[in-house]
Structures are given as C-alpha cells and as structure tokens.
C-alpha cells in the first residue's frame, strides 16, 4: 500500500522551510527513488508565478534528491481525467495545485484510498489528502503598506481573478495594510471572473486608472499580467503576485507578494519516506517563510517608511498585528 510517511515533525518542516534558499542548494547523497505527480492549476506552465514555482520545486527535487515526477495541465478543466492518468501510475504522491482542482482531486482520492494526495491552496477532510495553504493575507498586508506609502493620488486598486475565498485573502490583507499605513487611502476592488484573460486585465486596470488609482495589485494569473502591463504603459506602479514579477514589467512592479511554493514543495518531497499514514495540514505564513515580500524597487522609501514596513512585518510574526483573511462586506 503506497502511503506517505512524514518522518519530520511540523516544527522540523517549518525549520527546513525557513532555512532553505533556492540559490543555496543542499548537498544530498540520498536518492528517495520516489515518484511524484502534479496537476497544475488552470493557467499551466509559463504563468511566471504559481505553477512555475511548484514546477521549479519538483525540478530541484529531481536534480538534488533523485526523485522522478510527471505533470499534467488541464486548460479545458478536465481535472478528473488528468488526475486519473497520474493515479494509474501508482505514484508515491499526487499534488493538485490550486483550489479549483479540489473537487476533482477529492473524488479521485476517494476512489484511490491507497494513493496519497496533496492539495495546495485548499483544505480537505478526505483521509488520504494532505492540505497546504498559505497565509497570503499576511504578505499582502505588506504590499498594502507599500502601496499606500507610494501612492500620490490616495487611490489604489486591487484586481482579483475569481471571486473565491483564497483571492479574498489577498484583498483583505492588502486593504488592511493600506489602511494601516494611511487611514484615508481609498481602495478600488474588481473581480475579473477569469485567471486567463490578459485583455480583460488591461480593461480592468484602465478602469481603475481612470478612477485615479496609481498603484495596482492584481491576484489574477494571466489576467493580472495584463493589468501589470497596462500599469506600466500608463506610467503607474503595480505589485506582482505569487512570484517576483519585477521582470514582467520592470518600470512598474515595485514589489511582489511571494508564495514560496517552490521551497514548500521541495521540503515536503525531502521529508518523504516510507511508513505511517499520518495526514498533515500545513498553513504557512510570514513566520514559516511560506510567504514573503519581494525586494522593493523603483521607489525610494524614506527611513520612516522603511521602519514602518519592517515593524509591520515583525508585528505580524509576533502576533501583535492580526491580519484579517476576509473583508467584512455590507452593513
């Protein structure tokens, strides 16, 4: 029966995650000879963020740990079919990337109780599905601080992909951080209903810019790429998401909310050995280095502003600032 054993405790995993840097590979002499499968989220490889980061983590595990992996993309939404293709290979672990694959992954997991699964960006109660979620709201808070301190118009924008709980976390943290830095800041928010439409992202960005927004934060995949490029075209600032997207628009991207999916995936694979069937639910925030803020570029923060940003991060980690993961909507 192929069930994962996670010999490392959660505290050890967090230590690994916090200390691991991709530009400082670990020396490895052991090959786990594990086989890993991954179903990428809607937009697939080449998104410059979420999918590419997870893939990078598996490539590193292949190169340093000797594991083998296979992957599938499902641009047509045929998640169940692709997961079944991976399950038929009798792998040690199958990863479903993104909340949109959750329903299909849980169905396939229930049909294959001896196969282990990992859901990234969602929480599952299915016995053979582990869960990994990120506290996007914590690092988004820091993006909001930078946005409010950078804005000259007093208006900033947020563009979400789908109107979903995970994207609400980005908006909630961003909004809270902006108001923390400037209680008078105005935040415009729109939801595209699509992660794969760059043209729609351009349109939404234009609408927000026409409303005087001079800093945009899209959490919307390829749709967000369109928004970032429009920000650059219009000469305003933007923030990237999931990975460091500075190179998408080097005249616009001030910073990025980074999910260290690559590090998390690598460290989980490293922790894979044969044995028990314990299920684990990972929740990774600033304290665990699961999320972080990319370097701030293009703008010079004052000494006071830099201190405020550093202090906010410390207070989130210490618990002195509790960042909301959902906005209160309506009265």
Automatic annotation (TrEMBL):
GO CC annotations, alphabetized: plasma membrane
Coarse class of the protein's main subcellular location: membrane
Signal peptide positions on this chain: 1-23
InterPro entries listed in its UniProt record: BMP_lipoprotein (IPR050957), Peripla_BP_I (IPR028082), PnrA-like (IPR003760)
Keyword entries, A-Z: Cell membrane, Lipoprotein, Membrane, Signal
Domain ABC transporter substrate-binding protein PnrA-like: 39-326
Short name of one Pfam family: Bmp
PROSITE patterns listed in its UniProt record: PROKAR_LIPOPROTEIN (PS51257)
Localization of this protein: Cell membrane
Membrane protein topology class: Lipid-anchor
Name the record gives this protein: ABC transporter substrate-binding protein
Species for this entry: Jeotgalibacillus campisalis
